[in-house]
Amino acid sequence: MAQFPTVRLRRLRYNPKVRDMVRETYLHKNDLIYPLFVCPGENVKNEVKSMPGVYQMSIDVLVEECKEVRDLGIPAVILFGIPEHKDEQGSEAYDPHGIVQRAIRAIKKEVKDLVVITDVCMCEYTSHGHCGILRGEEILNDETISLLAKEALTHVEAGADMVAPSDMMDGRVAAIRKALDYKGFTNIPILSYAVKYASGYYGPFRDAADSAPAFGDRRSHQMDIANGDEALREARSDVEEGADIIMVKPAGAYLDIIYRVKTELQMPTAAYQVSGEYSMIKAAGKLGWIDEERVMMESLLSIKRAGADLILTYFAKDVAKLLD
Ligand code: PBG
Ligand code: ZN
Predict the structure, then answer these.
(1) Which residues contact 299 (CB under 8 A, 6 or more apart)?
(2) Are the CB atoms for 283 and 256 separated by under 8 Å?
(3) Which of 80, 99, 132, 276 is most buried, by CB atoms within 10 Å?
(4) Sign of CA dihedral 297, 322, 47, 67
(5) 191 in contact with ligand 1, CB cutoff 6 A
(6) What is the C-alpha separation between 25 and 124, in angstroms, rounded?
């Protein structure tokens, strides 16, 4: 291999036009999925304290927000529900007239050309805040997956374009696929939170969705942060069960996992830049310690460079404006 001074890597950096010509990775609006939180009431828009710029919105406000998101050129939103009532079984999760189901109908009636994805989990709906139903302090797997299948089905019956199970129970993708197919929804894709770590970065989300576990944690079903090979086993098993898109979550601290999942499985791959990642950038930006906009773009471009095709991010609207 030729060496300095014959080789000078700086030659291709010497002016902005040349740099533009050799740039390898781009962010595009089509890469973005915007998370939204829907709550009961009317004309409600509560800012989440630990997530500046993120709101809990009642359905009427949410519909207007979805129009704005669509007009900005963002192709998709993912909905999270904050129910009126929580109970042991999380029954509003799979109630055909639950908060998310009503929100989907309202969006579908008024906003064309927006892909509506729903988060499928129990933790926002259970009184104990766990992602499944309990026996004592054990989170039951097999009993939970039939409820998740019911939840997904009610979302799709309300008009959801795609469902995204985030619970990390085993076998839930297969259960959801079977329930959807049985009712004729053979074309509705499943975006699986296939590789979801038991992460400290979800803290602010639990304020936003009011879903902190009342006792214990999520380590009996979410992945150990130390494990990489296991991520591939999780992703492969979800693909075999019928997942159409594989998600890795969180994103920024798991770029190696995004890279491995993308290169080994060659599946459409999504990454979730989660609440804590967002809030840290926001907070440091507010303090003037970093340039918020610059770090926002750097964090997202890095996720893309690692191999993500799609990014779920609370920055989606800011990015879309910047790309204009
Ligand atoms: C529900 C769910 C969580 C997130 C997405 N879906 C929280 C959790 O697992 O505790 C986190 C998203 C974020 O932090 O932005 N299971
Ligand atoms: Zn959950």
Answers:
(1) 252, 273, 277, 281
(2) no
(3) 132
(4) negative
(5) no
(6) 36
Are 148 and 142 in contact, with CB atoms under 8 Å apart?
no
Q: DSSP 3-state assignment of 237?
A: helix
Please tell me the distance between residue 125's alpha carbon and the centre of ligand 2 in angstroms: 9
Structural domains of the chain ordered from first start: 27-323 (3.20.20.70)
| Helices and strands (H, E) in the chain, number of each type | 11, 12
Q: What's the DSSP call for residue 56? A: E
Q: Is the CB of 314 under 6 A from ligand 1?
A: no
194 CB near ligand 1 (under 6 Å): no
Question: How confident is the model over 228-256, as pLDDT tens digits?
Answer: 999 999 999 999 999 999 999 999 999 99
**Ligand nearest to the Cα of 81, by number:** 1
Task: Look up 249 and say whether it is catalytic.
Answer: yes
Give percent of the chain with pLDDT exceeding 90.
Answer: 98
The yes-or-no answer on residue 262 being catalytic is no
